[in-house]
Amino acid sequence: MAWDSIPELVLTAADRFGDAEAIVDGPVRLSFAELADRVRVAAGAFGSAGIEQGDRVAIWAPNSAEWIIAAFGLLTAGGVLVPINTRFKAEEAADIIGRSGAKAVLVQQGFLGQDYPAPPGVPVLDLKSGFLASGSPLVRAVSGDDVADVIFTSGTTGRPKGVMMTHAQNLKWTADWCDTVGLVEGDRYLIVNPFFHMFGYKAGCITSLMRGATILPVPAFDVGQVLELVEREQVTVLPGPPTLYHSLLSAEADRDLSTLRLAVTGSADIPVELIRRVSTELPFQAIFTGYGLTEAGTVTLSRAGDSFEDIATTVGTPCPGYEVRIADDSEVLVRGLGVMRGYLDDPAATAEAIDAQGWLHTGDLGSLDDGGRLRILGRKKDMFIVGGFNAYPAEIEGYLLQHPDVAQAAVIGVPDERLGQVGKAFVVRKGPVSADELIAWSRDRMAGFKAPRYVDFLDELPLNATGKVMKDQLR
Fold first, then answer.
1. Nearest to residue 299, comparing CAs of 339, 357, 353?
2. Per-residue pLDDT reduced to its tens digit, 105-134
């Protein structure tokens, strides 16, 4: 079935799935029919608050039933969603609220121990205050070509940029995601990935409304809570970053996890051993890895039947409607239906990112194997040159993760008087190994220019809210 807009998808879910559970969030249990009713009322609340067609509204709050109602209510009122990273401090959020031109901000006061201050001239509404239930039902006409959301990039490599994507784009790539990974009616989807990120919102909330899966939002990752929810709510679908599965494997808990069937992850540095353990020690029937970015949606996914090594070392083959090629400098280029309309109010950055032939220059380095599978080698900005040789951190990290005493690793280039740059590894240990031992071990297994010259041991790597290592902090 095809829909013209996200509101049409959400509202027709009432007819398609009726009294089946759409959302389970603590004591809140909503059917698809009840969710549709609440979305219409929330749309009316936005309309009464002066939100017009095309107006942007920010949501700066954790995963919750109210977040979902607010987001879909806003879209149903013809507005444009601007999700904001809950890890941001007030100054960072104010920058995005200001540049997005948001007419209002919805927050959840007290989350992560902080209150969200009001930016000058922009009304701040508490998601839990009753605002969403204050309107009369409203549905405005929305086109597939209308911009649905402006999601700002993570900002770990510079000032965040607002990525514009339309209703039709979101609906097409998320439908293909559902088909590839096998999300089906009746699935119970525990969403650990934050809603401010495309993985949580689009490959989570939108896909669930598309296929009739129950959404179980998790506001902040806690392995004990996740294990309890999986058992109590009979969760079947649990995507997340590799760190999620590390935590599940290491958690000492006597929980019944037998309902888990579908895992989806993505990263440049997944050890083959992790995929093997997830497959053999946890009850998942299918494990997928993929490559996606805010500017293009999910571009590649692994396929059923791929080997442990394929799943761990590549991010699969292009999804329907996408082309992937590797430029002469090894940068990954992407073209297709999901490539953004552009960066908000930044034509120069848009022109720099998307060339005249429509290829998006991702900033990632990669290669394609004989089967057309994409392997991510790292970020273009992260590559460093050792005595004239290109060194790719993701490749070096992959080697380090093969050491039995290494749990996590991140590599950066640091200045060197003789060679220009050399590698420095930041390692989280799971066993007794010294820096000298790890350096010697590395030299036995990789070319001399790749082997790290320095090793620092940390209790944990600095991660952003989506599980990516923030290498700017390591530098």
1. 339
2. 999 987 766 666 667 789 999 999 999 999
Cα atoms found within 13 Å of the Cα of residue 76, Cβ hemisphere only: 30
What pLDDT, on the 0 to 100 scale, is given for residue 269?
65
In whole angstroms, how large is the CA radius of gyration of the chain?
22
Q: What pLDDT was estimated at residue 252?
A: 65
6 has a pLDDT exceeding 60: yes
CB 241 within 8 A of CB 466: yes
Instruction: Work out whether the CA dihedral 449, 455, 461, 463 comes out positive or negative.
Output: negative
Which of the residue ranges 72-86, 153-167, 245-259, 275-289 would you say has the lowest mean pLDDT? Answer: 153-167
Beta-bridged to residue 368, according to DSSP, are 374
- CA-based angle 301:305:307, to the nearest 5? 85
Question: If 0-12 CB within 10 Å is exposed, 13-18 middle and 19+ buried, where does residue 453 land?
Answer: middle
Summarised one tens digit per residue, pLDDT across range 284-309 is 999 999 999 999 999 999 998 899 99
Instruction: Tell me the C-alpha distance between 320 and 296, whole Å.
Output: 13
Say if strands 56-60 and 105-107 run parallel, antiparallel, or are unpaired: parallel
For the CA atoms of 248, 251, 255, 258, the dihedral, rounded to the nearest 10 degrees, stands at 30
- Helix (H), strand (E) at residue 415: strand 406-416
Q: How far apart are CA 195 and CA 60, in angstroms?
A: 10
Across the strands, what pairs with 457? 427
Rounded to whole angstroms, how far apart are CA atoms 230 and 224?
10
CB 414 within 8 A of CB 397: no
CA distance 297 to 181: 15
Of 238, 236, 201, 208, nearest in space to 223 by CA: 238
HSE (side-chain half, CA atoms, 13 Å) at 191: 32
Between CA 406 and CA 436 the distance in angstroms is 14
3-state helix, strand, coil in the chain (%, to 5): 35, 25, 40
Complete DSSP assignment for 80-121: EEEE--TT--HHHHHHHHHHHT-S-EEE-TTGGG---PPPTT
* Residue 43, amino acid: A
Q: Find, among 202, 106, 220, the residue nearest to 148 by Cα.
A: 202
Q: Is the pTM of this model over 0.70?
A: yes
- The overall longest dimension of the chain from CA atoms, in Å, is 71
CA 109 to chain CA centroid, Å, is 24
Query: For the chain, what percent of residues have pLDDT higher than 90?
Result: 76
Distance in Å from the first CA to the final CA of the chain: 49
Spatial distance between the Cα atoms of 193 and 466, rounded to a whole number of angstroms? 7
What's the pLDDT at 475?
Answer: 81
What mean pLDDT value characterizes the chain? 93
